[in-house]
């Protein structure tokens, strides 16, 4: 096989998509811990509102207002927790990106990734999977580590379609498609 490579740079849409794919794949924000966090926050909100309600003199007047306030606060906490966790994951991806050009070369038995400062080789058997999104190609090399995200729109040299077809041929059953736009799975 003749080696085939591409030169690319990181783009924001590809990194955001890669963060969302990685979050889904690894379950970094597990439902169990999210539910526990929401329950603890909800209990503290209910406790504070009950204490405030207890010291009111006209309890009949304030009971529906307190209930409405409690429900609104709990819903707000849920949305704030979700958005903060997703933003933190996207921040992890943006700090790992670089402004310079990167290179990925597919060879007979391995793939080589290089930046101006580092170089790494992975045999195709070591790659856990490849997930192709709308804006990116996420290569999951090691479980628990950040994937390598190749931006389809940030390719400076080479063709994304040819690169993905050669990689798909080498990876075979571990190549998946994910359609994500705006952080939502289609």
Quaternary structure of the protein: single chain
Gyration radius, rounded: 23 Å
* Contiguous helical run count: 4
Portion in beta strands: 15-25%
The largest pleated sheet is described as:
5 strands, antiparallel
Low-confidence runs (pLDDT<50, min 5 residues)? 180-186
Helix-strand category: alpha+beta
Order of adjacent strands in the largest pleated sheet: 4-3-2-1-8
Quote the distance from N terminus to C terminus: 36 Å
H-E string: EHHHEEEEEEEHEEE
Shape: elongated
* Helix content estimate: 40-55%
* Number of E strands: 11
Mean pLDDT: 81
Overview of the structural elements:
This protein is of the alpha+beta class and 186 residues long. Helix content is 48%, strand content 23%. The chain contains 4 helices and 11 strands. The protein has helices at 12-26, 31-54, 59-96, 160-171, and strands at 4-8, 102-106, 110-114, 119-123, 129-132, 136-140, 148-151, 155-157, 175-177, 180-181, 184-185. Strands 4-3-2-1-8 form a 5-stranded antiparallel beta sheet, covered by helices on one side. Strands 7-6-5-9 form a 4-stranded mixed beta sheet, sandwiched between helices. Strands 10-11 form a two-stranded antiparallel ribbon. α2 runs antiparallel to α3. The longest helix has 38 residues, at 59-96. The model is unreliable at 180-186 (pLDDT under 50).
